[in-house]
Write a structure and sequence with these properties.
The protein has 15 helices and eight strands. By secondary structure, the chain is α/β, with parallel strands linked by helices.
């Protein structure tokens, strides 16, 4: 950037000096030529100015979000088609619950079970809703064939989303840090004006590259890489990632089971599924840690862990959390789309009875 600025500034100085020092002559023919040349100089100055501003916009990509973000569910109709009509109400419910960030199309949002067109429609609907709520919109673009990932990244960048998150390639899995960086460079190039974060979810993606090594290696290679959603319970590795590259990256805790210990050792942001149906827990844990009320924070975490364990006793996490959302909040998000298995309707009463004493 410094080199670009210096070269542009030098070019502008030369043009201005040539313009100011151009000789004036009484010859009307020569004067007309000089006038045209001066007009061209002015035109070139404006072209150079807009080129320079464009470079600045491309090279300076800021990411300032800190705090709690909800990985929102995709709302399905009974026929499993996508429902966007409820999204404004969903956004307001989360805002009223103290959640100022929205992650679209991640694991809880069943992003890999959606078509490219459905994912684009969802992004557009959440962007529209956020115009009234001013929530940060992050969009997960990975988990699809490579051309579709690039297309989704470009679409999100064009819409002006606040940030992009991406899974790694899920079939030809990267095994080394540099392989992952090479993949992310393509996504970065497709969305050069948008902060990019990596989605580290080894239990689902099968990719378990050391995040501290990855961030140190990527720090000078992917300019708009701004952080990681860290969906693992290994806080030792997460803390190393937090310190990587002189602490320049934002690390979002992505596991409901380690919010309190993570916040207690210096993390300040989380993207957890419980922020949908049970948003008070992550919010109150964060506040308790800030207030140095650690016993309260630990108690809240223990209760949240019991809730999450109870949900998964009845089946997969996403269908269970969507059912909890339907039962205990004003927002009905429908069922999970196949291949996920929803709870047998005959067991819903049992599910409710198991959770109610913990809420």
């Amino acid at each position: 950037m410094v080199a670009t600025f210096t070269s542009c500034k030098f070019a502008v100085k030369v043009m201005i000096s040539q313009y100011l020092l151009w000789p004036i002559t009484p010859s009307s023919e020569v004067a007309g030529s000089v006038f045209l040349l001066k007009k061209n100089y002015i035109k070139y100055l404006f072209i150079l100015f807009y080129f320079f501003i464009g470079k600045i916009r491309t090279m300076i990509v800021n990411f300032t979000f800190i705090g709690l973000m909800a990985p929102v569910f995709t709302i399905f109709n009974p026929d499993f088609s996508v429902n966007t009509d409820k999204i404004p109400s969903y956004a307001n419910y989360l805002l009223d619950s103290g959640i100022k960030g929205i992650l679209v199309g991640a694991s809880s949002g069943e992003g890999t079970s959606l078509s490219v067109q459905e994912r684009k429609i969802l992004t557009e609907a959440w962007i529209t809703a956020a115009r009234n709520t001013s929530q940060h919109i992050m969009v997960q673009v990975g988990g699809a064939p490579f051309p579709d990932v690039v297309d989704l990244a470009r679409h999100a960048d064009t819409l002006g989303v606040d940030s992009i998150l991406t899974l790694p390639e899920l079939y030809f899995k990267p095994r080394k840090s540099q392989e992952l960086i090479s993949y992310l460079k393509f996504i970065s190039a497709a969305a050069p004006n948008t902060p990019l974060l990596y989605y580290h979810h080894p239990s689902l993606s099968g990719v378990n590259i050391d995040m501290a090594e990855f961030l140190n290696d990527a720090s000078h290679q992917v300019p708009n890489l701004k952080g990681v959603k860290y969906a693992s319970n290994d806080l030792a590795v997460a803390h190393a990632a937090l310190r990587a590259a002189n602490g320049k990256y934002r690390i979002f805790i992505g596991s409901d089971h380690v919010i309190e210990p993570a916040f207690s050792v210096g993390f300040d942001s989380a993207i957890v599924a419980s922020s949908n149906a049970f948003p008070r827990y992550s919010k109150e844990i964060l506040q308790a840690v800030k207030d140095k009320q650690l016993e309260n924070a630990i108690e809240l975490q223990q209760n949240l862990t019991k809730i999450m364990t109870t949900v998964t006793k009845f089946g997969s996490k996403v269908p269970g959390m969507k059912l909890a959302m339907n039962l205990f909040t004003p927002i009905n998000v429908g069922l999970a789309r196949p291949p996920l298995q929803n709870l047998n309707p005959h067991r819903i009463g049992e599910f409710r009875s198991a959770l109610e004493p913990l809420l």
